[in-house]
Amino acid sequence: MSLPMRMSELSERSGVAVPTLKYYLREGLLPAGESLGATRADYSDEHLRRVRLVRALIDAGVSVAEAKRVTEALDDPPRSRHDLLGRAQYALPAPHADTPVSEEVMALLAGLGWAVTPDSPALHSLSGAIAAARSAGVPLPPEALRGYAEATEGVAAVDVANVPTDDLASALHRVVAGTVLVDPVLAALRRLAQEHMSSQR
């Protein structure tokens, strides 16, 4: 069992300045510590883990309001793993959220046989991303979209397999952190794979 820590130690261990920690507390991103008086409180390893997650989200470009939606989901995790995945995905910011879902995207998912809820923010994101790519001169023909989709199934299988099954709160934390922090890893791997494939030709 870990020993409680004061805010100064929480700051030192997390690398986040005390004024920023106080801001997180005021904004509800960080739960209050155990009160020791009017101006003192103890914090736990759970607080440390939360601070690191919030910092990672904000550093990745997630706004404070969006980060708060994520932490609210963490504080009230759903009971099933599937609902947990949805809660995590829906709490994160979605680019192109105002773009209507295209018939092409719905046809693509139907052809793949993917079970996706019709209110998934990712449907809007995909529709908007395809439109943006094409407007910039990247054609993205249907066979390329399907190829990308089929390749990402393997990535998703790894994601889902690595979600903890014993503690839903920890699982939600893993999904949120993994989605935000592993996306850059996948982008870098893609570029490295492109270089490799090009060298083979």
Q: Report the sheet-strand fraction.
A: under 5%
Total number of helices: 9
Largest sheet: 2 strands, antiparallel
Number of domains: 2
Pfam family, one: MerR_1
Domain HTH merR-type: 1-73
Keywords: DNA-binding
Organism: Pedococcus aerophilus
Helices and strands, with pairings:
Elements (H helix, E strand, L loop, with lengths): L6 H8 L3 H10 L6 E2 L5 E2 L2 H15 L4 H12 L5 H11 L11 H10 L8 H15 L6 H20 L6 H33 L1
Antiparallel strand pairs: 1-2
Helix pairs in contact: 4-9, 5-9
Provide a descriptive summary of the structure in words.
- This protein has helices at about 5-15, 20-25, 45-60, 65-75, 80-90, 105-110, 120-135, 140-160, 170-200, and strands spanning about 35, 40.
- By secondary structure, it is mainly α.
- Helix 4 crosses helix 9.
- The protein has two domains: about 1-60, Multidrug-efflux Transporter Regulator, Chain: A, Domain 2 (Orthogonal Bundle), CATH 1.10.1660.10; about 80-200, no CATH class.
- It has a two-stranded antiparallel sheet with strand order 1-2.
- The chain is elongated and about 65 Å long.
- It is about 65% helix and about 0% strand.
- The model has no long low-confidence stretch (mean pLDDT about 85).
